[in-house]
Amino acid sequence: MQTAHAEPVQSSSQAIEPWGDAASGDGLAPRFLLWLAAQSGLQLRQDIRPLPRVVEDLKSGQNALALITASAERDGFGLEVCRPTAIRLSVVYRDAGRQLSQADLRHRPVGILRGTHTLDDFLADSGADRVYVSDLHQGFRMLRIGRLDAMMCVRPGCGRTLREISTPGDKWAELSISNEPMAVYVSRAHPLARDAAMLDKLRAACSSPQGKQEIAALLARYD
Fold this sequence. Notes:
By secondary structure, the protein is an alpha/beta fold.
C-alpha cells in the first residue's frame, strides 16, 4: 500500500499495563496502533515509554501517534483521530464488610499511577493522600501489605493484575469513579498532522467494523 510517509514514523505508547509493557515492548496500545497503521498504509517505529515522556514527545512532535486518555489539554497539542475505547476508573480497597465512600478516604493513602491526572478531581474532592506508584503491580502489592488504604484501578488491566497478585484469602471491594475516553492522537507538531489523506484513512480504519472488532479482541485479551 502506497503512502506519502516512506519512512516509519515514531509511535510511543505509555508504560502502563495493559497499554504498554516496557520489558516486552508489547501491549494493547502498540498492537492497536500497528493494526491501525497497517490498514492505512503507514509504517511505524514503536517503543514503550513512561507516560510523561509519551505526552512531552507528542507535544514536541517526536512522538507522531499515540493512544492515550483524551483531554482538553491534550487537544491543544494532539489532533484527535478517534476514540476507540474508554477506561473505567475506580479505587480498590480491602473488603472489611462495609462499602467505603469518597469521604471515608480523607487523609488516607491512595495509590496513584505516576504521570496520570485522571483522578485529580477525585483526590481533591475526597481529600485522600496521593501516593505515587510506578505500576499497578507495585500499587496492589502495597495495598496487600497495608501500606495503602486504596489503590487506583484502571480497567482494562486492573482485573488481570489483581488476579495475579491476590491469594485465595484476599477479598477486594471497589469504589467506581468515572469512565474516561481513550483517543488516538496525532502530534500537531509532526508532518503527519498535515497529511489530510492519511488522517482520513486512519479515521476510517478506526471507526470501521473491523476496527471495532480489533479493539474488542484486544480488550478481551488484556483484561
